[in-house]
Amino acid sequence: MNPIQIIDVIKHKNAYGYQWFVVVDRMPKRVYTRTGNMLVSNDSGFYDFLAIEGGTKAFGGRKFSIQLDDGSTFECHGQVWSCGAPKGTEPTVQLGIGTIERLRDCYVFSGASVSKARLQEWLDANEPSTDYRKYDRRETEEYWLEVLEACPSLKKQVSAQRARALKRRGVLIFKDGSARFWSPYFERKKAHKAKRTAEAAQ
Questions:
Q1: Could you tell me if 122 and 3 are in contact, meaning their C-beta atoms sit under 8 angstroms apart?
Q2: Could you tell me the superkingdom of the organism this chain comes from (predicted)?
Q3: For the whole prediction, is pTM greater than 0.90?
Q4: 31 with 41: CB under 8 angstroms?
Q5: CA 140 to chain centre
């Protein structure tokens, strides 16, 4: 399997500081090495850390199997907990990861730990993005136009003179025969995206 390639890095500012989100060409394959009660997976510098600590409430008691690097599987039923990196692991950074395909289907980044050196290597050669929603299909004009197609009531008919005035302000005008329409919904979406992009760049 080819090493994971970092496509983009998003530096997202929120009320508590900055968060990092990494867009990759494929999600990490989680195959774990067991050392005592520790389970560690590492795919191209993308890590996951688990600890066998007993009990029945880890991950809400959900039952699942994980693959070990010796070819066997380990059955989890509430006794395996997410944990921090064990001693001896290279420095890592906690962040969110996702592929473009997964994000377009559902805009949720998965949690992961990545090698600090791997992340820094990409940042040394590239500029991170600042728009957290840049891969969200719901934040594209293509999607908004689909909404308008499904909900024509979101458009308002205007006179030809009013349409010309709106167009000079940068408003998108829709035509249906001789009728002219504009959409407050579409314009609010555009304005919100422009504001968010400007704020993220500050």
A1: no
A2: Bacteria
A3: no
A4: yes
A5: 15
**Please, how many CA atoms are within 13 Å of residue 162, restricted to the half-sphere of its CB?**
9
* Contact indicator for 93, 156 with CB cutoff of 8 Å: no
Alpha helices in 16-112 (DSSP H): 100-105
List pLDDT tens digits, range 57-85: 888 888 999 999 999 999 999 999 999 99
Q: What is the dihedral of CA 28, 110, 120, 14, to 10 degrees?
A: 180
Return the axis-axis angle of helices 141-150 and 184-201, rounded to nearest 10°.
Answer: 160
Q: Tens digit of pLDDT for each residue in 154-201?
A: 999 999 999 999 999 999 999 999 999 999 999 999 999 888 877 766
Phi, psi of 184 (to 5 degrees): -55, -35
Q: Which residues of 147-178 are buried (b: 16+ CB within 10 A; e: fewer)?
A: ebeeeeeebeebeeeebeebeeeebbebeeee
Question: Taking the CB of residue 115, how many other CB atoms lie within 10 A of it?
Answer: 18
**Residue type for position 154:** L
Distance CA 86, CA 197 (A): 39
